[in-house]
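Question (not urgent): is this output format expected?
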Amino acid sequence: MPASLEPLDLGVQIPYHFRCPISLELMRDPVTVCTGQTYDRTSIESWVATGNITCPVTRATLADLTLIPNHTLRRLIQDWCVANRAFGIERIPTPKQPADPALVRSLLNQASSQSGPQPSRLSALRRLRGLARDSDKNRSLIASHNVREILLSILFSNTTPESCELNHESLALLVMFPLADSECASVASHPDRINYLSRLLFHPSIDVRVNSAALIEIVVAGTRSPELRAQISNIDEIYEGVIDILKNPISYPRSLKIGIKALFALCLVKQTRHKAVLAGAPEILVDRLPDFEKCDAERALATIELLCRIPSGCAAFAGHALTVPLLVKIILKISDRATEYAAGALLSLCSESEQSQKEAVAAGVLTQLLLLVQSDCTERAKRKAQLLLKLLRDSWPQDSMGNSDDFARSEVVLPF
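Got this back:
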């Protein structure tokens, strides 16, 4: 065989009994039903969830929907994966078993028993949190047992130092579940509850602080009443605590994610945005902008645009040397939404400051905006870009267009 030819990749055949009869894929969590047939858990659960009450192979009625883990088959599949790793097959992880409904009920009863010893209640909450972390299915099961009402009661029924550990554990579990509108309103309408959460923002434990910020964000975002949202966002300490969370090292990414979600939710309340500016939001947003992941970067840019709409925010961002160059650089780099928010923030800054106009031109905004106008970006982003081009038309160097190889041949018609 000539040396230039690569050997044929014959692949590997998955044994018949390792395949799920429904999906025909390698089973990752094999379970046996009452008819004795084995399926992958995800496939048989989907089969039953769509209204089927028969065994897919035997067609016999599934009188009992209990799924029994087939540990022997799962170990055989794992051994086979290891034996064939040369073919690029990865060993399937050992699945964590779903929570037992009876266990969940018992743990919730134990945690909510006010007469029970605190160590026992703490242990129950920690076990529930471990189960909730394991899977979405476990969280759904726990949520179906009125867990939010139980946890809210534990969190706010006693805020003395003696109960702090129990409160912190209930808070850590509570933020794993979305709250109903009525539950958000219940928290928001009690100033003592909001004040308690704002105090937790300065707790020595970063986990407690982040969980408090997470619940504040859930409540603000889920409260329909503008008056209640304004009441929460009017508390100076909340802004200070949330912004302090954003200062944590990148080695704790959850603080960035929760911090920017909370700050964005607070800044949606127009009449209190100046409090975010006073607490130092512009500086921390610009400094941490490169550290955010895509979704969080979009939220950070949306927050910047919101704060640029008020005079104090616009002045604070304009006074930061990195604001304009960063916003120019971000255009067309992260996502359509990020581009739209960056263009909107630049439009606000350049409308109020000639210095920002000069900085934008020096950072190459002309190239970015012309590319944006020709791109498949959102219409709102293009409209902001056109307005910005019109605003800056007197700021271009006279030879900027004529000497540009990129745009000497451009057929773009500028909107002015």
